[in-house]
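Trying the structure run again after the queue cleared.
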Amino acid sequence: MLGNPLIRLLLRRIDRASAPADAEVDVARANLGLVEAQRELPGGRWIGILERLTVYVCILTGFTAGIAVALAVKGLGRYAELATAGPTSRKGELFIIGTFASLLWAAAWAGLAWWGIRAW
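Done. Tokens:
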């Protein structure tokens, strides 16, 4: 539910803030930012959806250790790709920001659902 567009908007906004203000903005963004990260880390959209679903279910069921398992699987699955990133790559930074934003989004919806269930 709106998680993907929201997280992508946040990452684009962060990417835009770090781009140089000259005529080579498109080249710099393609080399340093979100475009490169999306190309080099395929499947991120589906991973994010599954991550948010997992966090949501884990919070509602009270299985908070499941959140740690999901994050560990995600981190280990991407470790090789992130470890080989060059010194100018922002993949790691975008990966962490996207993960935290995704977790907060899922936790907010789980909190809203939990509150709604309790109020009912």
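The two ends are 22 Å apart (CA to CA). Worth checking whether this holds up in the mutant runs.
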